[in-house]
Amino acid sequence: MVRGVDRAQAYVAERSILVPHGCRFWLRSLTTDGYAKCVVTEAGRERTVRVHRWLMEQVHGPLPPGTITAHSCNESLCVDLDHLSSATQRTNMRQMSDQNRAAGRAHLGYADTRGSLGRAQAIQAALRDGLDLDALAAAMLAGEARPLVRQALMNGYDAEAYLAAVRASDPSSAFVPLFTAEAAEGSRSAPEEDGQMSLF
Fold first, then answer.
1. pTM of the predicted model, to two decimals?
2. What is the pLDDT of residues 125-159, one digit of tens each?
3. Residue 114 near residue 127, CB atoms below 8 Å
4. Longest dimension (CA), the chain
5. With contact defined as beta carbons under 8 Å apart, do 75 and 162 qualify?
6. Among candidates 164, 167, 145, which has minimal Cα distance to 100?
7. 95 partner at 20 to 30 Å CA-CA among 54, 74, 102, 170?
């Protein structure tokens, strides 16, 4: 099993780029809603998968029923294991609402008119020729709703300033759903509804 995990992690690393604030952005195919996707062959059959969920399953085994793979970084393009956890959809939606990332943010004038796929494509374009931090900051800024994060990105890319602005924008952003040890060891029960762990 370890060999399979190592292969999965190497596969993802070869097709993504790690940026200074900790996200590992996927540089290949995307779903219509901006998530990383790829085709994997298992037992002689090909299937298209969302990379973040597939990677979690490769590392932790099948996820418990009723769970999703959530991004603590709120970046659909991110495939970094440290930013992924198993959560219920309800917990994921509550975190989105707490961080003002729900559709209601349009009234602030900062809604990303590109949509989630457009945002992911803009980030990929900024990183296509390597790690261009100014281009990355511009791509991330275009759809950012949180004023402190917008201000940090307007000043160019600075990982520490960006992370500080994320933390200051919403105290709940410092917590993410926890992938429970029981689930990792084979239990098939859903994760604790409010299981939290520190992100930063």
1. 0.79
2. 999 999 999 999 999 998 787 788 899 999 899 99
3. no
4. 50
5. no
6. 145
7. 54
